[in-house]
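User: quick one
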Amino acid sequence: MVTFAGWEMPIQYKGIVEEHHAVRRRVGLFDVSHMGRLEVTGPDAAVSLRSLVTYDIAGLEVGAGHYGVVCQEDGGILDDVYVFRLADERFLMVVNCANADRIRDWAHEHLAPSLQATMEDRQAETVMLALQGPDARSHLARLVPPLAEGLRPRRCAEVSLMGVTAFVSRTGYTGEDGVEVVLPSEAGVGLWKRFVEQGVQPCGLGARDTLRLESALLLYGNDIDTTTNPLEAGLAWVVTLDDGADFFGRQALLRIREAGVQRHLACLKALGRGVMRAGYPVLHSGRRVSELTSGGFSPTLEVSIGMAYLPTELASVGTEVEVDVRGRPLRAQVVQRPFYKRPKAG
Amino acid sequence: MPTPTDRRYTKEHEWVRVENDLGTVGITDYAQDQLGDIVYLDLPSPGTQVKQMEKLGEIESVKAVSELYSPISGEVVEVNQEVIDRPELVNQSPYDEGWLVRVRLADTAEVDNLLTPERYDQYVAQAQET
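Assistant: Done. Structure below.
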């Protein structure tokens, strides 16, 4: 067990690689109760959230969700979030564990007091589970058949599950198909047990990290933070700048877009043996140009992979760099993002 | 997995099995279990001189990187190419197929500085309690 932002969480149950492959090939179960869950309700819920989040979440239909980021005025990233629209005037925003208070404080401080919306933290009273992998929906179908059949990617629904009302979305952080479920704590524990009885492999933080890294899904605090902006992080697709709606950081991001970004978050694949890890220096022509924001061993590709912000001229696919692995140079190459993409369903 | 009685151990969880003046070196079952999935080994080339309890190489698992220490002083005479190609052998067979290097001992008396299997088991039991 390790302490992660105040939560005791297991690195692994059976072994990182075994859990990793279980998710890629079959199904795995993660307890992600540490994620912040903020429910935003009221006549001005959509307007309030739109001014916080870079993506046009006010345009989401009921039952839809989207990834986005929350920026400060200079465009630096305060958090990356997933916003779901549960009803016209009710949203669920899933935020990073360590950032839930920060986002709430930021909203209280910056949103006009005249706005009619409340933000409530649902973390303490609920459990959040992520069931991930190609077989995830068939396991859910044993409990709620119509939902498992009908739920499209990035959609959500509130359904009766384990005798309570549960939130279910077809989302995840592994690059595989899957669902995430939020439900009252006691029922959540029951659901965990039920899935494990169905033969689902419990997975820890270790596999969560190797899976998300292969899929080039960003980790707040490593790949993005207040010193990085979404345009250089490759998140232009979650920044809606042209709908006229204002949000924190919009003016800065417009200027950055106009001027062009100076660096890009690039995906690096090792060309030799050795493991690149977060913080290791990245060199080009003998000169230090960056350091890895994330790194590790990819169980699927069986080679080390990582990410680093590289100057624009070095960030194109095919560029070779060296990573300083504790004094030993390891050649690496910029590759397409993501490292791993799941095969299209047949 | 029982701790083999035909060898000696370090507090850094390496083992050495000595036959005449040749020592075969590896890591213990406890060590491989703590490290988890081993994916890379950086081992010295034959001809390298190593010293007792000084750095022998590095071992990388998915989780972390750790230093390897040499249980004995001497010259590396052989490296297990099998574990270089298939590092998971160290997880699967830490005391047998997963050996790392063979060292020609400079001083066989050094073996007395190492833990007996019983002492090593006690040491691990204590480590697990804390």
